[in-house]
Write a structure and sequence with these properties.
Blueprint: H1 3-22, H2 26-41, H3 49-98
Length: 100
């Protein structure tokens, strides 16, 4: 497989990762990223303009995905902390209710 086809396949997977991320399906995004990694490891130093354009497009999408992943991680962390606080409050209520 030539470098351009390799990068086209990697770009297609990158678009799949982006679609999964937009849907909030980070498990699928990670699966696709794992599928894409071997392709990216096969990329050689090819200076053809078309090849460089594909690399830049993948890099641009990856930068956006990293930002989205960081935002999602922060949101999930906040949701988790809020859920734990609600669980603690419910436990306290149950303990207080047992006293009566």
């Amino acid at each position: 497989m030539n470098q351009q086809q390799l990068l086209k396949n990697a770009l297609e997977l990158t678009h799949g990762i982006a679609a999964a991320a937009r849907a909030g399906d980070w498990i699928e995004a990670a699966r696709l990223a794992d599928e894409r990694s071997p392709l990216l490891l096969q990329v050689q130093n090819d200076q053809a303009d078309a090849t460089l354009a594909l690399v830049r497009e993948i890099q641009t999408l990856d930068a956006s995905l990293m930002s989205d992943a960081d935002d999602a991680r922060m949101s999930l962390g906040n949701n988790y902390r809020e859920a734990m606080a609600r669980t603690t409050a419910a436990n306290r209520y149950q303990q207080a209710a047992r006293l009566f």
